[in-house]
Structure formats: C-alpha cells, structure tokens
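Hi L.,

You mentioned the student needs an example of a multi-chain input paired with its predicted structure. This one should do, with 474 residues in total across all chains.
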Amino acid sequence: MLAMDTIRLYDLAVRDDRRPSPFCWRAKYALAHKGLAFEAVPVAFTDIPALFGGAHKTVPILEDGSKIIGDSWAIADYLDEAYPDRPRLFGSATERELCRFLEASLFLSAGRNVLTIVIKDIHDHVKEVDREYFRTSREKRLGRTLEEVAAGREDRLDAARAGFDSVRLALAGGGPFLSGASPGYADYITAGFLLWPASVATIPLLRSDDPLLSWLGRVQDLHGGLGHKSPLYPLSG
Amino acid sequence: MLAMDTIRLYDLAVRDDRRPSPFCWRAKYALAHKGLAFEAVPVAFTDIPALFGGAHKTVPILEDGSKIIGDSWAIADYLDEAYPDRPRLFGSATERELCRFLEASLFLSAGRNVLTIVIKDIHDHVKEVDREYFRTSREKRLGRTLEEVAAGREDRLDAARAGFDSVRLALAGGGPFLSGASPGYADYITAGFLLWPASVATIPLLRSDDPLLSWLGRVQDLHGGLGHKSPLYPLSG
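Structure written out for the whole complex:
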C-alpha cells in the first residue's frame, strides 16, 4: 500500500513494461535529479482520459500529494519551485531557455526521421487496448497509414543519425555531459529522445562506434541506473 | 592617440568598412555586454599574419593591455575571468556548454547554405589586397571555384531560412531574447550568424515577415546600437 505522500509519475507503458515516451523519460530523470523517490505508474494511451477527470491529454502527469501537473516542462518548473533546496534542474532562467532551444533543435533535426523509424514499432508494442486508438489518431495526424509512414525506414537511418550531429559536436568539445561536468536537463531531454527508439525500435538506430553511446551509457547509469530499469532493444548494431 | 589601456578587438573588415565576421560580431557583443569600452580595429585577412608575430590565424583577436587572446570562445572566457564583477557572459558552466550546443546546431542546420549564399559576395567585398588570398584559400578548402559554390544560391534560400527554425521555435515559446528576459551569449552567437550575410549578401536571406527580424532588431539596438554601427544590406526583402 502506498503512503499518501508517494510521488507518482504517470508513465506511458507498452508491452513487456517497455516505457517509450521521451517526455516521460525526462520527467523521471527530473525527479531522480531532484533526489525525489517516485513511483512510475504504467499507463496505456487510452488510460489517460480517465486520469484526474481527463485534465491532461498526454503523459507525463505528476501527482505530488494534492498537486497534479501535466506537461514535462511544467513538471520540471514545478519541481524546481516546490523543492528549491534540492539540486536544481535549471541553474538559471537562461539555462532553461537554452534547454528549450536544444529541444527545438533536436526535434527539427531528428524528430521526423526517428518518428518514421519507430512509429510502426510503437504500434506493434502498444497494449491491445491501445492498438486502434494509436493507429487511428496517428494516421489522422500524419495523413498516411502507419505502414506508409514507416516504408523505407532503413533508407532514413543515416539522416536520422545525422540529426544528432549537434550533440556529437558539443560532446566532442566538452562533456562528459551535455550540461558540462555534471548532468542536467539538456542530458535528460536528449537521453529521453534516444530511449524512445531504444524502447521499441526493432532496427538499431545508431552504429556501434557512435560516440553518443558512451554518453548515453553515462546517463543511463545515473540515479541508481534509472535508464536501465525498463526493457530496451539494442540501440546500435 | 590611444591610451595604453584601450582594449582593442581586431575585427575583419571589407570594403566600405563592412564587418562580416560572425566570430568578430560575437566578440564585440561580448565586450559590450561586459560594459567594456573597446576599439574595433579593422583588419584585412592578409593583415592577420602580421599581428602579434602571427600568433593567431584568425580574427577576432583581443588585445587587453599585455593580454593577447585569439578565438571567440577564449575571448569570452577571458572576459568573464578577467572582469568577474561585470555582467557575466555565462552565468554558469552549463550555460556555456549549452551555448556551444547552440553554435554547433546552427552551423549544422544553416552554416553550409548560408556560406554558399554569401561566399561570392564576401569575395566581391574583400579589400583588393585580400582578393587572391580569399579565392585561393576558399577554393582549396571547398574543392570548387567560388562561382561553382555560389551557383544556384537562390534555390537554397528556403533551406537556409529553415536552418533557423530552431531559433524561431525557441523565441516563439519564450523570448524576448534567446537567453530569456535579457540578452546573453546565445543571442550574440546567433545575431553574429545573421550579421554575417547582412554585411555582404546582395540577395536578402530572410522574408520580410520573418519573426527573426524583430528579435535581431532588438539585439542590434543593444549596447548603444552596436549592431547598427557597420554598414549592412537589407537582410529581408
């Protein structure tokens, strides 16, 4: 039985307890960075409307006592505000703005290609109850069938990989983390972006000599090995 | 006659005292941000080997008394270190790392296309003494003639513009500066990147309704209108 004060993070779950959501990953890392114990409550896509009276259309949703917060950025802001004495996610307002730039940049450079590579695998991994919802909503959004979106995905692997060149360049001139000597929200955004395909993609996104892998391994090892706690496919091969 | 303690920033200059270097722009902004008076000393490409015994192959070079610093990042670091009581360029080591990511990201998303759009215009604007050096060094580096690199540049305007979508997205969700409520090094990197084509490009890079223009105008107005002090072509049309 959970104590009243357990923090819960409602976390998208698919078959085999895989956790593919990049936004949930960064929220889990945000909680861990703050040193806050939490339960990552597995939810299906179609569970979300039943949570908190349908107040939020997406996960993550954070439940901290009577506080219910949706949206990964709002969650990060809440955590820094509610727990100011714990390690900060954003050392300054400028850090936060620059993390927003990083998110925008990665979604533009890699988001579309990674999406087309993983979308059919996500469909094939969602729980039975989510299958129809996922197909219908995504096909409407994308204007094509999932099979059409995924077609030829092998041919987009190089472009998808190149979409992370900015991360490689930044790490090559600095590191060991994107945030510098110690990990921060920029690392969590980017790691979540890669744990998304790693959770479900049945073709490996990266080459085995990709320098991103050692950085990602460092992030996965953080906070008691948070990034190893859900099943993953090999991200490289 | 200059006092001994005048800070000098050796700044690439071409015809009509235009100042195209994105790296020099950010260094000038860095000095202005610190509230330091400086002289932006115009130099031709072929002047650089004669400066300080050829210690630096590129500008900007900062001369602050007996301190001679090359490279825009080294200059920024030096200024924060030597003038710790003045407004900081980097509020934290993480801010600096995230600015490095931003630089890498912009060069990857827009650098190549902007280069091909401006390179022949730079050639046509460099001082007579630089003409041969510029053509020879750039053609060797690029493996093609300047005319071949520039050919069809109109067709690359859309792609060049799209290379700044990450900046537009970040500003749309925040602002008024990329660094947040007040301007910072991320703004100076990005403004320098646009003042580069604005200094020499004989075709306008941006559309007249581009939201980048109002942000760039804000940056140009800063620090006594620094971004208006050298001649510019219209950046939009």
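You could point out the following to them. The beta strands of chain A are 7-12, 38-43, 61-64, 67-70. The interface with chain B takes residues 91-102, 104-105, 108-109, 165-167, 169-170, 173-174, 177-181, 184, 186 of chain A (CB under 8 Å).

Best wishes,
N.
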